[in-house]
């Protein structure tokens, strides 16, 4: 792969996730973007109007508007739909973008800590994961390279490579120092990694590291009027990336009937009770714990 020099750092894709927005402000004020002179590093607030109002989006979720068909569809003229076309013009076009890496900064209300979310398992991404995990052992590496195609409509999909920094728990429209610090630490490691990757100067990476692999999403059951009839079990509250064995209670109906995890594998939930997934009645996503051996990719 070519050198990665054009790097776009994005905040405010969701206007009520404040860490990314304020990280860009902070770095701008302290002139930190010049800390990586080897990179052509740009910073962009993706959805300024949503940021102004401190809402996730104005009309539709911007981070789901980057399917190729949607970007080419002249009928799609909603606010975020047009904004997606503008961003695709600015950073893309998707599939033929000059931007080698996009880093999108997000918050979650779930207790996921500092999570590096990756869309590919290639040398660049595996190396980044190993590098970040070694320097930031508290970080969680999450691979979503197996997401269904219709779910990969993220802003980062416009660039040649894209990673998401997802840090929580932080309530929407709130800025917490610890969360900002975690995001800053992870983002610095990513940018340091890119410089060393280009120089071929990574030194020795760990031979293996722990990660989590997306498996599926679980929704809360609803009645025939679309009303929820259950909630996430208190046993799982704040327990993102903790193991759940088959047969364990994961939800409970309002009549007090437990709902069990019926899969046949030890699941590691994430995005448990994430506020933004209210409309979809999502209860959580599930993953499996994996050990990634770097030698399998290098
Ligand atoms: Zn977000």
Automatic annotation (TrEMBL):
GO terms for molecular function: hydrolase activity, acting on carbon-nitrogen (but not peptide) bonds, in linear amides; hydrolase activity, acting on ester bonds; metal ion binding. Residues 4-193 form the Succinylglutamate desuccinylase/Aspartoacylase catalytic domain. The active site is at residue 166. Its cofactor is Zn(2+). Keywords: Hydrolase, Metal-binding, Zinc. Belongs to the AspA/AstE family. Aspartoacylase subfamily. This is Aspartoacylase. It comes from Oceanimonas baumannii.
């Amino acid at each position: 792969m070519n050198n990665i020099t054009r790097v776009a750092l994005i905040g405010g894709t969701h206007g009520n996730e404040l860490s990314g927005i304020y990280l860009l402000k902070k770095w701008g004020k302290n002139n930190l973007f010049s800390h990586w002179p080897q990179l052509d590093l740009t910073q962009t607030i993706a959805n300024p109007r949503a940021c102004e109002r401190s809402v996730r989006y104005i009309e539709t979720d911007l981070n789901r508007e980057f399917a190729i068909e949607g970007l080419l569809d002249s009928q799609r003229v909603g606010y975020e739909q047009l904004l997606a076309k503008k961003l695709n013009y600015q950073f893309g076009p998707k599939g033929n973008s000059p931007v080698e890496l996009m880093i999108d900064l997000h918050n979650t209300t779930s207790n996921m800590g500092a999570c590096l979310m990756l869309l590919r398992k290639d040398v660049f991404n595996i190396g980044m994961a190993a590098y970040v995990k070694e320097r930031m052992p508290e970080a969680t590496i999450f691979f979503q390279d197996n997401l269904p195609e219709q779910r990969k409509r993220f802003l980062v999909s416009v660039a040649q490579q894209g990673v998401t920094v997802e840090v929580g728990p932080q309530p929407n429209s709130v800025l917490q120092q610890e969360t900002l610090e975690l995001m800053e630490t992870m983002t610095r490691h990513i940018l340091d990694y890119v410089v060393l990757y280009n120089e071929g100067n990574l030194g020795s990476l760990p031979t293996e590291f722990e990660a989590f692999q997306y498996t599926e999403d679980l929704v809360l059951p609803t009645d025939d009027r679309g009303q929820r009839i259950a909630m996430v079990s208190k046993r799982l509250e704040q327990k993102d990336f903790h193991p759940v064995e088959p047969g364990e209670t994961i939800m409970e109906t309002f009549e007090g009937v437990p709902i069990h995890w019926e899969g046949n594998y030890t699941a590691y939930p994430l995005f448990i009770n994430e506020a933004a997934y209210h409309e979809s009645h999502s209860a959580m996503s599930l993953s499996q714990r994996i050990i990634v051996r770097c030698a399998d990719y290098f």
